[in-house]
Request: fold
Amino acid sequence: MDNAIELPEELQDYIFASSEPVHLVVRRIIAETQAMPERSMQITPDEAIFLRAMVRLIRPTAILEIGTFTGLSSLIMAGALVDGGRMTCLDISDEFTAIARQAWAEAGVADRIDLIIGPALESMARLDGPFQLVFIDADKENLQAYVEAVTPKVPQGGVVMVDNTLWRRQVITDDAAASTVTIRAFNQWLVAHPAFDVEMIGIADGLTLAIKK
Ligand SMILES: C[S@@+](CC[C@H](N)C(=O)[O-])C[C@H]1O[C@@H](n2cnc3c(N)ncnc32)[C@H](O)[C@@H]1O
Reply:
């Protein structure tokens, strides 16, 4: 979370206290992950609430997540699924997702989640969809490829959410790092995509919503 537009802890707490209750496991996975060296990969708590709101609004029967890590985004979204709803999670790391698996079991959502370990593009090729809600939060080099691969699997009105599109605000600087150049180009490409209405939300490290026309 160090990379994101961070809210002070008291505000994060207030946001939790003023929203539907979150499972104790959600709080534990935040605390546990924030003690890890890779903590900046975790979504922010206010973003977690936003993702849950998206699930409540869209009421997807199938969610696809690309980039699961220790499980915060999947935990919060799977917990808000309608009865019978399913979530497919893709990641390359057995180590990180072992933590997620444990959290899903403790929170009672493990039976709604299918985890596929491997490079996400390969896993996606074997999935039919449809997915009414997609969350892309993995390696940034493949952002465009992920959107291209998932587009035919998203129905009209479905939403593809892409994380980190502000890239620690580097997108508005003259930073020439490869990652920054990639994300700037991706943002330009996505906003011009004919299949989507695109809205960038200034939450956390930037979350872009691409709504299928
Ligand atoms: C930013 S973290 C995801 C954070 C997570 N959504 C959360 O709520 O905490 C990115 C994850 O993408 C995974 N990843 C990176 N490259 C990948 C690839 N090519 N295919 C699948 N997963 C990948 C990493 O192992 C890591 O767990």
